[in-house]
Every structure is written in structure tokens, then in C-alpha cells.
Amino acid sequence: MTREELAQYDGRDGRKAYVAVDDVIYDLTDSPRWQNGEHEGTHQAGQDLTQALRQARHVRAVLKNFPRVGYLDNEPGLSPQTARKANQLIFLFFLMIAALGAYLLLR
Predict the structure, then answer these.
(1) Which letter does DSSP use for residue 78 in this model?
(2) Are strands 68-71 and 18-21 parallel, antiparallel or unpaired?
(3) Which of the pair, 34 or 55, is modelled with greater confidence?
(4) Nearest Cα to 18, choosing from 62, 59, 56, 49?
(5) How far is CA 21 from CA 8, 74, 82, 102, in A?
(6) Reduced to 3 states, what is the DSSP secondary structure of residue 21?
(7) Region at 61 (left for phi over 0; alpha for psi -120 to 50; beta for the rest)
(8) In this predicted structure, what is the pLDDT of residue 54?
(9) What value does the mean pLDDT take over residues 27-49?
(10) Helices (H), the chain
(11) 107 — pLDDT class (breaks 50, 70, 90)
């Protein structure tokens, strides 16, 4: 999800309340602490709150109680999750090539 798409989930007028933290998007709609998309007058849903919550370490433990609905795509191209999967596939490919090479050498 892009930042522009995330902004549409601001929790206002019946819309869902999503926030991004460390590139993971959480649905906070059902949280009583996020009424109308606002958290106690300090944070608004529909935003990447990674920097704002950097000092609040307890937040990551609290967020684990809410549904993950996607990942924040910070730049055009691969998302961090897609890049990680691509790297895993590349590693597997080279591992298979190395195994084949070892097989051919030891034959």
C-alpha cells in the first residue's frame, strides 16, 4: 500500500483506521483508543507513525494485538517484503547451482 492509499484509512466518517509502523500496516479501527481515527489527541490514523513512535517501545507489543492488513510501499519498485522473498529465491537458486557443481565435480 502506498502512503497515498494509507491516507484514505484515516478512521473518519466511518472509514477504517490504519497506521503503518516499520512498514507494517495495522488496522486499529476497533481500538477504543483510536476514536474517529485519532489517538488521544496526539496521532491520526492514515499515517506512517514509525518516527513518531520511535521512543515508545511498548507500542510494538501493543500493535501485535491488532490485525496486520498489509505493508507500506515506501518507494516505487519492490516492497521490503517482496525484496526479501526475491533474495530468498536468488539464494535458493545459487544453492542449487552449488550443489549441482559439487555433484558434477565429485562424479
Answers:
(1) -
(2) unpaired
(3) 34
(4) 49
(5) 16, 12, 17, 44
(6) strand
(7) alpha
(8) 76
(9) 89
(10) 3-7, 58-63, 80-106
(11) confident
Banded model confidence at residue 28, pLDDT cuts 50, 70, 90: very high
With beta carbons less than 8 A apart as the criterion, state whether 98 and 91 touch.
no
Instruction: Give the global pTM.
Output: 0.67
Cell output for 37? 481515527
What cell numbers appear for 1 in the block? 500500500
Q: Which residue in this structure is represented by grid cell 494485538?
A: 65
Which three cell numbers mark 104? 558434477
Contact 33, 39 (CB under 8 A): yes
pLDDT at 77: 62
The three three-digit cell numbers of residue 73, written as one number: 510501499
Residues whose CB is less than 8 angstroms from the CB of residue 104 and which lie 6 or more positions away in sequence, other chains included: none
Q: C-alpha angle with apex 11: 8 to 12, nearest 5 degrees?
A: 90
